[in-house]
Amino acid sequence: MVPYPFRITNPGVPPGVKDPGLNKIRHGPNTTRGDMEDLALFLITPPGSRFPNVTRTPLGTQFYQPNVDAVMDTFYWQLQAVIFVPLQDDDSLFLDAYDWQSKLGDAEKNLLESVKRFILHTAIHSANARPSDIAFDRHTDQGDALRHEKVDCLEDYVKDVIALARWLKDSAAVTEGPLPSLKDFVRTRIAKLDTLAQRGRRSLRKSYFAPNSERRTHLYARQTCCVILGLTDDYDQRPIFGLNKWNKDVLMFDNLETLLWKGFGLKLKGDRTELKDMTGSLIDLDAHFISTGPFKFAATTRVQEHLTLDRKNEIRIYVSKSLDLTAFMFQSHVIARYPRKDANN
Amino acid sequence: MRSAACIDHLGLEIGRTYALLFLQEPTAVSRHEAKRLGLDLENFSLGGGVRAVEFRNIFYDSLLLGNIPRLEDFQLMRRRLYELQKQMNDWRPQGVRDLFKKGYKDPLTWYGFIFAISFGLIGILGLAVAIVQTAATFNP
Description:
heterodimer, A: 345 residues, mainly alpha, three-stranded mixed β-sheet, 15 helices, 45% helix, globular, B: 140 residues, two-stranded antiparallel sheet, 5 helices, 2 strands, 52% helix, elongated
């Protein structure tokens, strides 16, 4: 029988929601690596069945969404408030014409689920303290000691996401001068958290945003920004955040402009003067006509490649598994449509 | 409300580019291409108990200027569409194989080339036949 800290009392209901052990993992301050190991096991174990004799065997590395929700829904509103405009405040013309708020809600839910899985993935990975791999040394000579090592709790990671979402939002609101640098943000936040820890107002960060962690924290911050903007397969292609390896292959950027360019192939706030000169009919951009010539079509899962030509003369078309969700992805996204101060001008 | 990053309609605009490419002339070839890419452009599912809506109605008929699609109808994708159109028009054969591919601009030149090639081949073939016939005459 595997150690299982979160007892299932009511089959069908997400288990462990009010478990004291779970609250320790969520809010700290004495979260240990052992707690994170138990959390990892909980997340990959199938949810309870209505039938009492069904054996629940952990499978693979995939997180089960009901378990993810059980752990993370405490933070749902905080994350929702910082990433999305409330539906009732949405004044999009598109939504006025078609009452599609349920679909908008689905798109929002998908993105938040991705954020939640990412936070858990990061917390478990960081607790392992071996950046290249996730493996739990339960049976080594030092196993017991390792399990008691202090690690960052989930709330720390949630606060990181909130801080980075605010940084993105502030970047989007800049109208003049250079855009805020992510490197500066990381440096400032590390210093701030360290000062608070020195004063005894919070525990010292152990992994990201810890002292002398600028380089790896920058990678983590970039990864977080990509997740907030849905720039990951986890959003609508296939779930990638689970009990798997930490991906170091992350877009290189240091401000919002570069992120939008590299991530979506779009310029921040557009370039209206340049676009003004681009006029004309698009009647020849038709699949039938195009396929009679030298260009062919190819599918891509990267938004930034949509409608671009590759070396093989193939026009890449962004293909999403849930097109209807993608269409609504940014409708109420706070960074995509954050109201500017001059909104009424 | 104005957008700061101005990308809130990205998903919708991607949908409209699908409509532009695959539903402008909904022929069997266009449908086949869309199917090969895994795009379902028949109905757009709205979820939440709302009935599905025909994809074309949503993403194509909303294009302005009398439903003739124009670059001005797109904001986020305008640059890419412009560049794609330019690449199509600027395409020139780079190798021998490319000579037999019809470009998108000025098809008359390509047909002229094919016509010339055909007559050239017929001429060469005629010459070969004449040589063979002459040889056969002297060497019965």
